[in-house]
Amino acid sequence: MNINRIKYGMGVTILAITVFIVACSKKSGTDNGPKADGFDKAGMLTNYADNLIIPAYMGLQDQITQLETTANTFLATPNADNQQTLKVAFKTAYLQYEQVSVNQFGPSERVLLNNFLNTFPADNAVIDGNITRGTYDLTQNSTIDQQGFPSLDYVLFAPDALAKFSGSSAANRKKYVQDLLARMKTLTGGVVTTWKNTYKAEFVQNTRSDAGSPIAFLINQFAYEMDQMKGPRIGWPFGKQSGGVQYPDKTEGYHAGISVSLAVANLTNLKKMFTGNNSGKGMSDYLVALNKKPLSDDVIKQFDLAIVKLNAIPDPFSTALANKKTEIEAAYREIQILLTLIKTDVASATGVRITYQDTDGD
């Protein structure tokens, strides 16, 4: 596997997910899932939509707007102080993105939001060419690694970034940043609008568990996000799928030095989604209603353990790869256990078939 060609977005699952997302809007009817007497699955889905998914997208929309405002201040006066202020706003917005990463279905999948917002590593050489020419089309699927958070990370925070905002290509560079942010705002705003106006009703109505249902997709996404934690976020840079060769510059949020913070935020949100934010209306509660309380408890405990182990790794992850190998290995091991619990045990208990194609065959 040539890790230089690995790009993390959601591209590897587009075909499989699209098939059953299309079905999601067409198939409701009789509940075909395992029997959980007395458990309100429509209420669970309503909780997800109203209290977790839509607010998370709205939060991302707000944070991108704030990031744009801070970026414009930096672009008007590109100095070290403004760059540092911008880095704080960038981190805040990127952390908020981790709240929606798991929700790549329905409106988000239709516009490939995760692909366009977080395919990493960015293609730095092509980005430099775009800036030099001053011409590009960010609506093309082929440009997913030229935009979003990873591209902003490179353009704004690479070691020589500040000097370039005063160089010969400064005007083109500033416009590129503005175009990236405008694209992020447009895509996220469209997802928010569609969820509010039409998609929420489709989502809540379908309480089935077969391929194409929200329940099946949520569990597939829980597992998929864990696969990405095991692979692109932690395992691949650490050398787990490359014969021990490490790739510190292939990490998420590399130039801003926030890779571990992003990973912790991602995993913390996955736990929040699994428990329905401890509302009594989450996937963990559904498992209890299916007489699988020990499994529910095991998954929650494993989330907590994996989060603790991740928190023991200091940022920047690229530096930790060299001097915190024991801590990274411990976190990787707990992530593997959590992935197996979700991908095998939780899927089996809920009657859900894992339909996405993972990246390393476990």
From TrEMBL:
Q: Which UniProt keywords apply?
A: Signal
TM regions (residue ranges): none
Q: Which residues form the signal peptide?
A: none
Question: Which is one Pfam family of this protein?
Answer: Peptidase_M75
* Imelysin-like domain ranges (all copies): 53-330
Do you know which Gene3D superfamilies this protein is assigned to?
A: M75 peptidase, HXXE motif
Coiled-coil ranges from the UniProt annotation: none
* CDD domains for the chain: Imelysin-like_IPPA
Q: Which InterPro entries match?
A: Imelysin-like, Imelysin-like_IPPA, Imelysin_sf
Name its cellular compartments: Cell envelope
Its protein name is Imelysin family protein
**Source species, please?**
Pedobacter panaciterrae
